[in-house]
Task: inverse folding
């Protein structure tokens, strides 16, 4: 029963994460992280070799908020819509208020020309913690398989 | 606990919706809606501008049933198989028996030539109500991102 | 409440199945099946005609383990990463310890050149049984829509 409640709460967090990213509610995205969070986007080759070097690294919530502001102000990239699909949620409790979590993701992008295609696939490796506001990401590593990844001004994954 | 039960029931409804569409059980599809339902397929550009004008509109369950009969009789379109993937379920209770619900979808199509590809991406905006038979769609808006959408005799999304 | 618990347990089994396949933990894959399991990969055309003839058939857990050993030893195929997405889980209890289960799947593949695309779509038809170690697959039929399927030394689906 407790396992089921945890599973429900973590799925709900992931659903909310996907929902804010895909429905143009980016301003709500940083609030899903703790103040002292880490967020990184890393190619699979590096992650598999233990190298945490990626194309983006934020080490607190403020940097995530700044990133959203930049994205809103810099409308120089082509309009597009993302749909994040997730699967295979894997939960490893660390202590009563901390969980390590993994999942697959696939992002389907629709560009201004109206074509939809697989844009990126990969996995999430997260550490989530229980806070007064509910479960929040303390660490999120987005590890992408796909090597053709837009690095410039990309919206969060 | 109550939130979890609601989440379970709405996910089950969505799973059943996807299952009947993708496994050639179209005759069961209308029964997932109320008698007085609304079902529409609308391009994202229109929905974002507040225009509910789409490529299809049904305003009761009977129209959905007629549509299924038409599809079964008119075998003039190429055989294909759909697989609907969904994510990011977002639940907003309205009252004890009514919920507003959003979700992403991606449809992968396999055509007669055996090729599988992303056919359509978009979001669902639903109103579901509790009935004697369980939760049913009172309103479902399918808002598609992809502009190359087959409009003629298309199977439901 | 009991239905919800069953739904949770079967989703968890499916999530674990996807997680071991997609994260290079193939050695854990056979343990998700019973000793006397059946596992087959079958084209949709055959399945729809009631012909269980497919491109692969294993009728016990040992054959699944042998298969994993073969895959590990025979590194002659191009490196690639899979991400299995699933949807539409459909549960039919048979008795207290046996369930028939169906679901959709879509596999996105990223090849050595860094390109990600839909590799295969289809459905699972499973029989799962309750064991001392939890729910396990007694039978799993992978029924693929896509006709361009690699048959030689393919990793499990």
Result:
């Amino acid at each position: 029963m407790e396992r089921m409640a945890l599973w429900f709460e973590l799925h709900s967090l992931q659903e909310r994460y996907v929902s804010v990213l895909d429905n143009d509610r980016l301003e709500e995205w940083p609030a899903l992280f703790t103040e002292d969070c880490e967020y990184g986007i890393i190619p699979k080759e590096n992650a598999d070799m233990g190298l945490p070097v990626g194309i983006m690294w934020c080490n607190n919530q403020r940097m995530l908020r700044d990133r959203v502001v930049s994205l809103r102000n810099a409308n120089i990239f082509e309009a597009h819509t993302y749909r994040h699909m997730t699967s295979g949620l894997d939960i490893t409790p660390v202590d009563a208020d901390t969980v390590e979590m993994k999942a697959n993701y696939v992002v389907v992008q629709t560009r201004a020309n109206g074509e939809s295609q697989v844009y990126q696939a990969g996995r999430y490796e997260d550490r989530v913690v229980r806070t007064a506001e509910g479960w929040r990401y303390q660490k999120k590593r987005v590890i992408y398989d796909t090597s053709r990844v837009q690095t410039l001004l990309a919206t969060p994954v």
In short: The radius of gyration of chain B is 15 Å. Chain B has a mean pLDDT of 92. The beta strands of chain B are 33-43, 56-58, 80-95, 98-111, 116-131, 134-144. The domain at 2-144 of chain B is CATH 3.10.450.50 (Nuclear Transport Factor 2; Chain: A,).
